[in-house]
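The instructor's notes for this session suggest beginning with a concrete chain rather than abstract definitions. Hand out the sequence below and ask the class to guess, before any prediction is shown, which regions might be ordered.
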Amino acid sequence: MQYEKRITAYIDILGFKDLLTETIDKNGKQNEKKIDDLIELYKSIREVWDLDSNMIPKNSRVPKNSKRITTFSDCLVISFFPEEKSEIFYTLLEIKLMIMRLIYQGVLCRGAITYGELIHTEKYLFGPALIEAYLLESKAALYPRVILHRDIINKAGMARLSHHSYQDEIEYVESLLEKDTDGMYYIDYFLKAQSELNDPLYDFPKYIERLGNKIRKGLMGSSSIYKADLKVKYRWLKERYNNMIDKVQSKVVISDLRKQGESELADYYESLKKINPND
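After discussion, reveal the predicted structure:
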């Protein structure tokens, strides 16, 4: 057996230990509601990639022997050959959809995407690419974000669909990403989440509300000096959330909504409050 060159994503569910703790009370009694909530969490993750289906769609874009997805405890590993046409774009999109589903359940995640040697089968999962992804997730991602280097984006251009130019493919991938202040790219689940909703116009306010409530709750729960590391994560979220509010409240957006006859939606956006910068 030899290593294969694979794009590898390692994703960690944040706060999983606390979720587990809630499943058993101090007297050792099981909390079935909390256990069921965890099962629903797993289902949400598995549904994004249809992991419980034994059927391979006839028009599947990925050969059966390429993409591998493994879940264990609070972690998820996805890998595939970099030559797969547009697979970098599709995988980033699927990760984004998973992040959004988890937010609706009040859960955040963090991860990293790398390229390198890996063995990923039903029985075995190991290799330098996985170690690198794990280290990037734990040491560089820092915040609730899934990060990747520019070279992964460039590889997407090399594995484009036949009717896409190199630049077309790059732009499709970049449409899912944002460049952070530290130079790392991350999957944007703030303003760029809107286009992935079933009804982008009317579902986005609900999504904004869920995300804002999660951040506010997290900031309140991390006020102790013993949770300084947690507070840093939520402050990162707060900054990007507030930037999103600035954009949806811009004169252009509000004016366009009113021109479309969406006055109630315009009023809703204008009424949105930023999260207190001092929190």
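Then share the key points. Residues 55-63 have pLDDT under 50 and may be disordered. The chain has ten helices and eight strands.
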